[in-house]
């Protein structure tokens, strides 16, 4: 039986100091993902931008978005610029990132105001006259062979890798990702800063857990006790370990269900293993439920589950465990990549390929109400130590420092 480990964070994340000065910056934002508020980068932008304006209303925020997308309303204090680019989607994407953003920024900078480009994902322009701040959440397409894709994808990643080296500063979501960026991209350490993510305000404990469980039973046919997983079904998410561990404990807990929410986003068997076949091979067809959970029900499943599990081998941050803890769920995660620094001492941590260890952890939590209660308490405190105010404060500090350091070219 593997040792179930947890580590202590040294201290809650301190809020960085904000020094308010009479200094206004034009911040031009690549808004490609603004129209996708349910995906990771879209969530990041939707949480971050209101806080940027709230903390520093003296700046001018301009979001550039591609035409033809259904764009949600912009937050207070953010101006929108729409760009129409024809041609095939992938070519239009590159033109938007590499040409449209720098050209628009150059025109805006003609007023002589300090101007900086903010790209919230791994796609900075290779050539821009204004300084660029890039957020790199992870290096999955560069580090994991199964995710490198076609020749076109590899060529694109080579382009943005070169562009990242030219960024004035890089933001990332964890110290793990920062170390990876420093080692793999060879960017100087003083140009890479961690700005943690946080769970959204909708993720909070249920006022009535039994009512939440009744809703889950009615909508999804899943009765307590149940183990929950939500996320991708690709290879790095490591569902095979979770399913094999569940098979080992199911005989001891025959009334427990494993609910899996998520979809395979492709058909490449190297990238998307056939988990339905594995479920059949393990004789778990009656014990595992595949469910489709709309965004609005996301908190509900966390609130109602007995255990939340996240066996991923690689995450740049790993929001689902943090969201689950914010909702009061006891959590088990892989002891890998960024996940230990996200969950701290508030979750059980098991090596990602240790099936026996995962089975032991699941069995222990299903059998020990006192431990589940303790993890709930610690999880709520851990989740509360992350906030988008903190994320925005660090982001603003970086944007302002970069803008101040850049020479201002005045145009006549």
TrEMBL record:
Keyword tags: Transferase
Any one biological process term the GO annotation gives: lipopolysaccharide biosynthetic process
Protein name, as recorded: Glycosyl transferase group 1
PANTHER family per UniProt: GLYCOSYLTRANSFERASE WBBK-RELATED
Organism ancestry: Bacteria, Bacillati, Chloroflexota, Chloroflexia, Chloroflexales
Coiled coil: none
A GO molecular-function descriptor: glycosyltransferase activity
CDD domains membership: GT4_MtfB-like
Glycosyl transferase family domain: residues covered: 223-379
InterPro entries from the UniProt entry: Glyco_trans_1 (IPR001296), Glyco_trans_4-like_N (IPR028098)
Pfam families according to UniProt: Glyco_transf_4, Glycos_transf_1
Domain spans labelled Glycosyltransferase subfamily 4-like N-terminal: 40-195
